Amino acid sequence: MIIKNYKDHKNSPVKKDLLDVVEIAIQEVVSKGIFARSVSCRENTLTVNNKEYDISDRRIFIIGGGKAAYTMAEEIEDILGPERIEDGLVVVNEEKKDLKKIKVHKGDHPIPTEKSMKGVDATLALKEKHQIDQNDLIIALVSGGGSALLCKPEESIPLEDKKKMFDLFIKAGIPGYESTIIKTKLSKTKGGALAQHFYPTPIISLIISDDNGESGDEMTASGPFTEHSSTFEDALGVIDKYNLREKTPISILSFLENNHGEVKNSCAHVDQHVLSSNAIMLDGLKKKLNEKEKIVVAQGNLKNEASEEAYRICKEVFEGSNSKPRLYLYGGETIVNLPEDHGKGGRCQEFIAASLDYLEKHTPQTDFGIVCIGTDGVDFIKESAGGIIDNISLELLQEKNLKPADYLKKHNTYELLSLLGAHVVMRGTGTNVGDLVIIYKGGLEG
What we know:
about 450 residues; six-stranded parallel beta sheet; globular
């Protein structure tokens, strides 16, 4: 099982059922299943999402990065056969052994380090090492987390300044699309820059997207193989919107102020294929649940501040009544605005804590359960993938006289969920399509 602490929740039928649904959801987006559905190779024809590519007489190179890059590399090497691959390198966030032809380099996430840059340098060096040209073929493997793992700032920007900027994004709770506007202007890999480096070699970009309803190829890993239409002025606009000008390192401000217009990276030689995403996961999960005769009545997107989303969704779900049990599905990626002094937690834990805060004041009249997890198995901290609660959790809250609002104020939600035995702990899934929320609401017959 992917859920490591499944047995901790087995005494609650509602929690057990919700965790079973989580298992089904993750199986929808693991690389093995995704590639089996979307990618195949027969003789000299590679097929991706029903589009055929003639790969005869071409040297094939594999590059990429992200939380799912290792499992993606395993699958593409298995599909093509190692004998077809000339060379390859992927940058990942865990220690992994090299594959038969594809080398594996460990970088760091969520804050990039020299390790990430060394992985990018080795990737860029493949072009000169093998004299890669228009007669060759590159298959790029892109997934969430690639923004930090494929980090290579512009020459005038020290890595320490780039790290400070990443940290500012996280603490300010800047949504993914807006942070990507800035990232693409400061990088030698993002916003199509990695594609530009290998121009004019044809590139097939395979994407497991953690986008939040925006363009998956442009957002995932900050779009290393996709042009970004924003400008330097747009990047400065985001900094001003979140009042970060005084906190932004001088090297970054100077670089943005001294450049103008769009960054022009040609990606005409790139074919983009989104193999999986949060929306694809929700569609597949809904279909599987309907086959099991479960009533699924909502399928919504998460994208705002975590606690606000929890209050909004709980209000939507629990205000009305229904005669039969229902499941509600939501996916995406929330944000958390962190002060300088804050506790321990993650956006999924924050969502669960805010749900408890709402439900403490608006006690459900039926059985209920809520689970919120990161599909990569990590909710910012490795100790937790998120949380799960039910009616018993509310009773424990009252027995222990715990106030969720106190923990939310300090962003110390890990402690709250620990006191309630409400954590979900998962193995690394080898995939990443954002976050998943599943809510069970019992029925009122008659």
